[in-house]
Amino acid sequence: MTASAVAAAREQLVRTPDGRVLLTYEVGDPRGELVLVHHGTPCSGILARWWAEDAAARGIRLVGYDRPGYGGSDRHPGRSIADVAADAATIADAFGVGRFRTWGVSGGGPHALACAALLPDRVVAAAALASVAPYGAAQLNWYAGMGQDNLDEFGAAVAGEEALRPYLAQASAETVAAGPDGLADAFRSILPDVDVAALTGDFAQFTYAWLAGGQRNGFEGWLDDDLAFVRDWGFDLRSVSVPVLLRHGRHDLMVPFAHGEWLAAHIPGAVAWFSQDDGHLTLVADLGGTHQWLLEAGKLDSTP
């Protein structure tokens, strides 16, 4: 890992009402607008140097955190996607903030949407990048367009924990062993050419640190994410009443483009920025537009 790829963050442990601990990472402007980040699956809450630089330039207090079971956060067995709302509110409270903005990428996308749906009095605006859609959603062939690794992984998730656990044990070990230079080969079945081309230099170093950091104490967070994705999410997307931005790349093999289209059709008033050139990973190479949209969407909100 190169130090330059990962932002130097102010770390803080936050305790939840039920006694769990969540590890948070704060960068950017400490007096700025709070933007809470929901990391991808199976990553961690660390933040990229270029996200931190962009946040500081825009007056954003960017806070990531390890979802339960990842990195330095305690596990919450059996958690649903909806359970994130209480954790997000607890983190905002710990930072002394009432209302905040949020974005999530990939497996973090549903968690950002849960906050939008379940915390309308606190979430000003939300963005979901390359987000998976609900499993079993009507009018969506959920698996169509996925690379083989994800077909295998979610097939195991649907079969249940007994089938998923040995699959992820091997996948986790292979991910950690790959190193920055081996990521493209390790994930080739779910990486389009545009993502493979991006996995060089600092971007590859950060992506590896992001992935490996989430699994430094095991793969339980990954397990709980996957099981939650294929169960009822615990909230209705049609209930979302705050501004939502959806971003998705046409070449995505991890979360196919059709998932983004389905979400856009089922979240009231959602703004869709769909790219014909991006894959999955390339969406996080530059978060400037997403950060600016979140700030501007908040200006339209008149609730104190």
Instruction: Write out the strand line-up for the largest beta sheet, numbering strands in chain order.
Output: 1-2-4-3-5-6-7-8
Helix content: 25-40%
Quaternary state of the chains: single chain
**End-to-end distance, in Å?**
42 Å
Number of helices: 10
Helix-strand topology string: EEEHEHEHEHHHHHEHEH
Tell me, briefly, the overall form: globular
Query: What is the strand content?
Result: 15-25%
Q: How many strands? A: 8
How confident is the prediction overall: mean pLDDT? 96
Structural class: alpha/beta
Which ranges are low-confidence, i.e. pLDDT below 50, for 5 or more consecutive residues? Answer: none
What does this structure look like?
The protein is of the alpha/beta class and 304 residues long. The protein is 40% helix and 16% strand. It has helices spanning 49-58, 84-94, 109-118, 148-159, 161-186, 193-198, 201-214, 220-229, 257-266, 288-299; strands spanning 10-15, 21-28, 33-38, 60-65, 100-105, 123-129, 244-249, 271-275. The chain has an eight-stranded mixed beta sheet with strand order 1-2-4-3-5-6-7-8, with helices on both faces. Helix 1 links the parallel strand 3 (33-38) and strand 4 (60-65). It is globular. The model has no long low-confidence stretch (mean pLDDT 96).
